[in-house]
Design brief:
By secondary structure, the protein is α/β, with parallel strands linked by helices. Helices cover 34% and strands 18% of the residues. It has a 7-stranded mixed β-sheet with strand order 3-2-1-4-6-5-7, sandwiched between helices.
Length: 201
Amino acid sequence: MNKNLVIVFVRNPELGKVKTRLAKTIGNENALKIYTNLLQHTESVINSVSADKVVYYSDIILHSDLWCETKYQKKGQKGTDLGARMQNAFETAFKNSYEKVVIVGSDLFDLKPTHIEDAFTALEKNEVVLGPSLDGGYYLLGMKKMHPNIFKNKEWGTDMVLETTLKDLELQNVKLLEALNDIDTFEDLKTQPKLIKTLKE
């Protein structure tokens, strides 16, 4: 068993339930198309990383989708908010004897394998690694042991998440990775011409 684990949080790709902020501008069908492309990009990135891998679904676990069951463990997210769901996923990973655990979302067209590999490397000398997103949150979180306070008392989805998380970790060695842009709004999408092009295909 590999001692490193990558956790990927995904939303079930259903019309009207993904990229709702983006959908206000481009419509539900195009928003679903964008999210499907983001999922495919995320899978291709995670697939090339040398680590164990687990996909956590927002609603129901899909058995015949792009996440091949020979490569990915599959689980359902549990918890009342994003913090609780992430905390449960990390606790499960550490109970299963993983030593370095990194979680990423599935909203990043700029995500590359090196971001995840760099996170595992950073955990050799740091307690926590964070990948800041340009909207004030983070796209990646890596830990070697639980820091449960970082999952509590956060207004998830706001521009204060990274700042309040760093405040919780001020006594720890924290490494910050390159900042990337989550694709949540039309403004975000405009920075990704390749992704926009997929809408015309």
